[in-house]
Design brief:
Order of helices and strands: EHHHEEHEE
Strand order of the largest sheet: 2-3-1-4-5
CATH superfamily: Molybdopterin cofactor biosynthesis C (MoaC) domain
Distance between the termini: 36 Å
Structural class: alpha+beta
Number of strands: 5
Largest sheet: 5 strands, antiparallel
Low-confidence stretches: none
Helix content: 25-40%
Length: about 160
C-alpha cells in the first residue's frame, strides 16, 4: 500500500514539504459538463440569460478559482500560476456546455487540483447564472484529462465516460 503523503507518522494531516523538490514545468487539463435543457442552452447561445453573459462570468470565475485553490482545498500549496485558461463548447446533443481548463506552473508541485477547481467553479457559475431558468441542470464528468511534469511524469485519462442520463 502506498504511504499517504498528507499524513504524519501519527496520522495527523499535514502539508507536504516540497522544498527539496525540483521546480519543473507542470501542466494539468481537466474537463466537465453542465447538462441542461435545450431551452436553457439557447439562452446561453443567444446571449439572453437574465443575469447576462454566462460564459464570460464562468470563465473569470474558473480562472479566479484556479488561482485561489489553496484557499479552498486544505493542504494545497499556494502556487504562482503561469497560465489558467477556461474554455467552453456548447453541445446540442446532449444539451449542455463542455468545460475545459488548462493550468500551468513552474514549481515543485503539480496543478491538478487547480485545473479541477477551475472546471468545478466555472460549472457552478453556469448553474448560478441559469438556475432561474433550469434548476434541473447537472454538473457531470468532472475529471483530470491530462497532467505532465514532476516525478510521476505524464498521465492521460482514458476515453470519456458515458454521460449520466
Amino acid at each position: 500500500m502506498t504511504k499517504l503523503t498528507h499524513l504524519d507518522e501519527k496520522g495527523r494531516a499535514r502539508m507536504v514539504d516540497v522544498a527539496g523538490k525540483e521546480a519543473t514545468q507542470r501542466t494539468a487539463i481537466a474537463e466537465g459538463f453542465v447538462a441542461m435543457s435545450g431551452e436553457t442552452l439557447k439562452l446561453v447561445i443567444d446571449g439572453t440569460a437574465a443575469k447576462g453573459d454566462v460564459l464570460a462570468a464562468a470563465r473569470i470565475a474558473g480562472i479566479m478559482a484556479a488561482k485561489k485553490t489553496h484557499e479552498l482545498i486544505p493542504l494545497c500549496h499556494p502556487l504562482a500560476l503561469s497560465k489558467a485558461a477556461v474554455e467552453f463548447a456548447p453541445s446540442e446533443k446532449p444539451p449542455g456546455i463542455h468545460i475545459r481548463a488548462e493550468v500551468k506552473v513552474t514549481g515543485p508541485t503539480g496543478v491538478e487540483m487547480e485545473a479541477l477547481t477551475a472546471v468545478t467553479v466555472a460549472g457552478l457559475t453556469i448553474y448560478d447564472m441559469l438556475k432561474s431558468a433550469d434548476r434541473a441542470m447537472r454538473l457531470e464528468g468532472i475529471r483530470l484529462l491530462e497532467k505532465s511534469g514532476g516525478r510521476s511524469g505524464h498521465y492521460m485519462a482514458d476515453a470519456a465516460p458515458k454521460q449520466v442520463k
